[in-house]
Design a protein that fits this description.
It is a single chain. Helix 5 (about 135-145) packs across helix 7, helix 6 runs antiparallel to helix 9 and helix 8 (about 215-225) crosses helix 9 (about 235-245). Strand 4 (about 120-125), helix 5 and strand 5 form a beta-alpha-beta unit. This protein has 9 helices and 7 strands. A 7-stranded mixed beta sheet has the order 3-2-1-4-5-7-6, with helices on both faces. The relative contact order is 0.15. Helices cover about 35% and strands about 25% of the residues. With about 270 residues, it is α/β, with parallel strands linked by helices.
């Protein structure tokens, strides 16, 4: 009789698969999240990066850019007293360094290379869902923040959306025959609970509908390639891109829902 893998073993195997996938994905797609989000806008707040920057106010002090990727937040934080970007992807860090962003360091969110109570702000752009285990990462965030310091993050979510958005979602999903994936998903209530447990209290938690241009096949391909699709082959990707590009037109827009959560260290 063959024993069934335990739940813990299955979770460990899944985590290992995601680790390998993310390493490969970011090695071959360095900077892609930045290329998408710098083109995504909301009429009241600008780009998601500008919205994230607005949450820390003027003169943010000492800033840690956690899981910084290509460090798109760096140009928006030039008024910080000190800036440090950390990430595990060598390709993303190299992409950032080529653009003069930094200082940068390869570091794990579970073992940040900073003393306790040493920074005023931790920003985390489109990466909080990648931090595993999330409770341990949030504990590290709280450790390096000074009392009263700010942790602010943006992440992709499913809402808000408009019914008209289904005309784009349906051909995309029909082509992929699979939903985009994330290493982990958590509700706003779940994130609030985990933040509170780490010593961080939410002061703002809002989702907005941004739009990305969909005027050409290149726009469709860029948006599609920015999705995590570990179980979708190249043929389905091409089919989805073809279906989505049929909706491209001058002034065309692709919706992107993003939630910003801001918390303060107790």
């Amino acid at each position: 009789m063959t024993a069934r893998p335990s739940d813990a073993a299955q979770r460990s195997s899944s985590a290992d698969e995601w680790t390998r996938y993310l390493e490969d994905y970011h090695a071959s797609h360095a900077g892609i999240t930045e290329r998408v989000l710098t083109r995504a806008t909301h009429p009241a707040v600008g780009t998601p990066y500008q919205w994230l920057r607005a949450s820390v106010g003027a003169n943010p002090g000492d800033v840690l850019d956690l899981a910084c990727g290509s460090a798109p937040m760096h140009p928006l934080l030039l008024d910080a007293t000190h800036y440090l970007g950390v990430d595990l992807s060598a390709a993303e860090l190299a992409y950032a360094a080529e653009r003069g962003r930094g200082p940068l360091m390869s570091a794990d969110a579970l073992l940040l290379p900073l003393p306790s109570a040493s920074v005023d702000v931790v920003v985390c752009s489109m990466a909080v869902m990648l931090l595993r285990p999330i409770e341990g990462a949030l504990t590290e965030v709280a450790r390096v923040l000074r009392p009263g310091g700010i942790f602010t993050t943006i992440r992709p979510v499913g809402t808000p959306f408009r019914l008209a958005d289904l005309r784009l979602a349906i051909p995309l999903l029909t082509g992929l025959r699979h939903l985009p994936e994330m290493p982990q998903r958590f509700s706003s209530r779940g994130l609030r609970r985990m933040l509170h447990g780490a010593g961080l209290d939410i002061t703002s938690d809002t989702a907005l509908r941004f739009v990305h241009p969909l005027e050409s096949e290149d726009d469709a391909l860029l948006a599609l390639n920015a999705l995590y699709l570990p179980h979708v082959g190249d043929d389905r990707r091409r089919e989805a891109a073809t279906r989505l590009s049929r909706h491209a037109r001058p002034g065309g827009q692709l919706p992107l829902a993003i939630r910003r959560t801001v918390a303060v260290r107790r």
